[in-house]
Known about the structure:
The chain has helices spanning 2-43, 52-58; strands spanning 46-51, 60-65, 68-75, 78-83, 102-104, 111-113, 118-120, 129-130, 132-135, 138-142. The protein is α+β, with helices and mostly antiparallel strands.
Amino acid sequence: MPERSSKVKRRDFLKIFGIFLLLSFIGSMVLSLFRKCKREIVERERMKVADIDLLKRQKFVKAVVKGEPIIIIYEREEILALSLTCPHRGCVVSTDNVDKGFLECPCHGSKFDLKGKRLEGPSPEDLRKLEIEIEKKDVYVLL
Ligand code: FES
C-alpha cells in the first residue's frame, strides 16, 4: 500500500513539474516577444517635420527627410505625409497646385491627388506615403 501511494505522489509530482516547465517555457516565449517588440518601438527613429498649428494655417508644409523631399498635408482633419519623389523617373513633384487639389510632376506630367493617388500620367504608381506620429502639437515622420 505505501508503494502505491508513493507512485501516485511521484506521478502527481511529475505532472506538476511538467506543467511548471510548460508554463515557464510559455512565459519566457511571451517575455522575449514583448522585449523584441519594445526594442523595435524604442529603436525606431523619427524626425519632427511640422507643427500642427502651422499646418492648419498653411494647409501643407514641405520638408526634406534623409535627402528626400516630402510634403505634409492637412486636409479635412487628416494629416498625411507623402514623398515628393515621382515614382516614374524620380523628378521632384511640384506643390504649386495644392490649392487646386493636386500635385503635378514637372517632368512628364503625372498628376496625383492630395492623398498621393495617381490621377494621370506615366507614373506607374501612387506617391509613397510615409508613416507619421503626432505627439502633442508636433508631427513626426518615422524613419
Ligand atoms: S518623372 Fe514624374 S512623370 Fe516622369
